[in-house]
Amino acid sequence: MVTARKPKRRRKEAKTDYRKRMILLKADKPRIVIRRTNKYFIIQLVESSEAQDKVVKTLSSKVLLDHGWSKDSIGSLKSVPAGYLTGKIFAKELGDTECIIDLGMVKTIFGNRAFAVVKGLVDGGAKISANEKVFPS
């Protein structure tokens, strides 16, 4: 009698794609993790050692309020322009570290808001390989 394999808890909760994570860990480079919450973008620089993640640097799109973003449009801190500017600010703080992008369980549809952050990172000077076709117009 063969029983079906039970999926792992974090996979069932749609939090971790273990196949993708293994590929990212084997790259042996720091990752830039991009997450979108209900209000903000959160960008983190994460280094892994023996599958133990360590967050080195974090930036939220909330920082745009300190850089002149209108307080009236605080609800738009997860928009395409906000993502682009947040990525650009993070790239300036990052310097010239070669990284890979970790979008997590986000559906990678060309032109979505997560790719606006990646475009900001590339324009800000981060060393990331990305295809120009995926960026929003």
Structure report:
The chain has 137 residues and is an alpha+beta fold. Strand 2 (41-49) and strand 3 form a beta hairpin. The protein has four helices and four strands. It starts with 8 loop residues before the first helix and ends in a 14-residue tail after the last helix. It has helices spanning 9-12, 18-26, 80-94, 113-123, and strands at 31-36, 41-49, 52-60, 100-102.
The biggest beta sheet, please? 4 strands, mixed
Q: How would you write the strand order of the largest sheet?
A: 3-2-1-4
- Termini distance? 54 Å
Class based on secondary structure composition and strand pairing? alpha+beta
Order of helices and strands: HHEEEHEH
Q: What is the number of strand segments?
A: 4
Rg: 16 Å
Shape: globular
Strand content: 15-25%
What's the helix and strand layout?
Layout: H1 9-12, H2 18-26, E1 31-36, E2 41-49, E3 52-60, H3 80-94, E4 100-102, H4 113-123
Parallel strand pairs: 1-4
Antiparallel strand pairs: 1-2, 2-3
Quick summary:
The protein is an alpha+beta fold. The protein contains four helices and four strands.
Characteristic key phrases:
4-stranded mixed β-sheet, single chain, 137 residues, 28% helix, alpha+beta
